[in-house]
Amino acid sequence: MADYTLPELPYDYAALEPFISGVIMELHHSKHHQAYVTGANAALAALAEARESDNLASVNKFEKDLSFNLGGHINHSIFWTNLAPATGARPEGELAAAITDSFGSFEKFQAHFTAVAMGVQGSGWAVLAWDSLGQRPIIVQFFDQQSNLPAGLIPLLMLDVWEHAYYLDYKNVRADYVAAFWKIVNWSNVSDRLAVAAAQTAGLLLLP
């Protein structure tokens, strides 16, 4: 079984400045994300050892460790690709149409997403996700890395609101960090994720 590995960023650590500093990006990627990768691999190894030794007394702990750390690995892997050096772009095509259909307008979507990001209590994420059952985009909160996650959602756009994602740049003013996020969203990546998610889940409603 292959280990999880830390993905390379598609840009330099300083590429998102002045909205996210190179210092934060390097710490966030090389330290925090790497810790989730290491933790996920350790949980998998512990579960394998538990099966091999027929000692499953600690399996609940190992499963929780896996859920938390693998959630952190997956969330960050998506988050990095959701970002790009500032372009001033906005959603276009099918993504723009889906946002308007589901939220009324881009401005209403942006306000809703921002409110969700600001409303996360403690550590977590604001997420635009594809609802594979309803066949539409919805906005949800993740608490920590994995809690409050309905099954069947496919993340399209994720914003990390753990304090380690912004504290060196914005101190405790999360609102400024969320406002800066909109300057560096990679809408092309979000659009590609929507196309794949919609195509792969279109048949789910037809299942008996």
From TrEMBL:
EC number(s) reported in the record:
1.15.1.1
- Tell me which UniProt keywords the record has, alphabetically: Metal-binding, Oxidoreductase
Q: Which reaction does it catalyse?
A: 2 superoxide + 2 H(+) = H2O2 + O2
Q: Name one GO molecular function term.
A: metal ion binding
Q: Indicate yes or no for the key word Metal-binding.
A: yes
Detail which positions bind Mn(2+). Answer: H28, H76, D160, H164
For the Manganese/iron superoxide dismutase N-terminal domain, which residue ranges apply? 3-84
Protein family membership:
Belongs to the iron/manganese superoxide dismutase family.
Enumerate the PANTHER family for this protein. Answer: SUPEROXIDE DISMUTASE 2 (PTHR11404), SUPEROXIDE DISMUTASE [MN], MITOCHONDRIAL (PTHR11404:SF6)
What this chain does, per the record?
A: Destroys radicals which are normally produced within the cells and which are toxic to biological systems.
Stated name of the protein: Superoxide dismutase
Annotated source species: Candidatus Lumbricidiphila eiseniae
